[in-house]
UniProtKB/TrEMBL annotation:
It is found in: Bacterial flagellum; Secreted. InterPro entries: Flagell_FlgL, Flagellin, Flagellin_N. The gene is flgL. Residues 3-141 form the Flagellin N-terminal domain. It comes from the Bacteria. Keywords: Bacterial flagellum, Cell projection, Cilium, Flagellum, Secreted. This is Flagellar hook-associated protein FlgL. Its main location: other.
Length: 317
């Protein structure tokens, strides 16, 4: 086989180029802190890193979704805490109104008190979040949940749901119908059977009207008023129990969101470790390889430099 000076030159140049490429590759690893900077560095690790990166992104999205869900549920819980206080005050007024020693003026005063409590409850039922959305209106967030005059429900019938984890779609906000117009399965029945009026605002409107009627000296009117107060007492109690059930449901969901957050954090740490194992550089190996390759490259430069001034005749001496 005939060996030419050009062939030797090309072989030495290829050796230097390859050595330089490896040296620069180790330098890039040390610069970026990653062993895999492009798919060709490690095709299998690179493909696994893409899948893992998607999982990390999804986990981050669920973390953000849980934050939104927690804020919404916490706001509802805060409002319902005030609602519970107002309902308790209503219950006290209705019980006191049944006192036989009261006269028409006293009952008229109680009617005014109940009207004030009814307005408080209506204001709470039509509460909005920081963006002006009505929190008890379901998906019809731009519409007030209740008509302030008639007490009719105006919101949507479907509560708001939020995907808070890969396998968990959670209801994060109750509708006004579920809160102020419903009863529990073990609700008390009216004296004549059934649950009567379940809308708390219409119940209050009825009892306020009954208390405004003069009944002193009128046994029939007094009995009608007493029946109205009794029915209102049952209705308000059922509403209170229903709201407490809703509050308990919100508390359960907030606890679950906390648990899912803890799980999400653990998952994030695990994914970060997996990603590090796949693509992060082994500093000891990288520094060692970089130093060794640098020495090899310098040796290649030296050998090439020495051979530049030599011919085949000189090599055969």
């Amino acid at each position: 086989m005939r060996i030419s000076t050009q062939m030797m030159y090309q072989q030495n140049m290829r050796g230097i180029t390859d050595s330089q490429s490896k040296w620069m590759g180790y330098g890039e690893q040390m610069s970026t802190g990653q062993r895999v900077n492009r798919p060709s560095d490690d095709p299998i690790a690179a493909s696994q890193a893409v899948v893992l990166s998607q999982a990390q992104s999804q986990n981050s999205q669920f973390t953000l979704a849980r934050s939104f869900a927690t804020q919404k549920a916490s706001l509802e819980d805060s409002v319902l805490s005030q609602v519970t206080t107002s309902i308790s005050a209503v219950q006290e007024k209705i019980i006191y109104a049944g006192n036989g020693t009261l006269n028409d003026d006293d009952r008229m005063s109680l009617a005014a008190d109940l009207k004030g409590l009814r307005d408080q409850l209506m204001n709470l039922a039509n509460s909005t979040d920081g963006n002006g959305r009505f929190i008890f209106a379901g998906y019809k967030t731009e519409t007030p949940a209740f008509d302030s005059t008639t007490g009719d429900y105006l919101g949507g019938n479907d509560p708001i749901y939020q995907q808070v984890d890969s396998a968990r779609n959670m209801m994060i906000s109750h509708t006004g119908k579920q809160v102020f117009e419903s009863v529990t399965s073990n609700a008390d029945e009216m004296p004549g059977g059934g649950y009567g009026e379940t809308n708390i605002f219409k119940t209050l409107d009825s009892v306020i009207s009954a208390l405004k009627l003069p009944v002193d000296g009128d046994a029939t009117a007094a009995q009608t008023q007493a029946d109205a107060l009794k029915a209102a007492g049952v209705s308000v109690k059922n509403t209170q129990n229903n709201i407490l059930t809703v509050v308990a449901d919100i508390g359960s969901k907030l606890n679950e969101l906390d648990s899912l957050d803890s799980l999400g954090k653990d998952r994030s740490l695990s994914q970060t470790q997996q990603m590090s194992d796949l693509i992060d550089v082994d500093w000891n190996a990288a520094i060692s390889s970089y130093t060794m390759q640098q020495a090899a490259l310098q040796a290649s430069y030296k050998a090439f430099s020495d051979m530049q001034g030599m011919s085949l005749f000189q090599l055969n001496r």
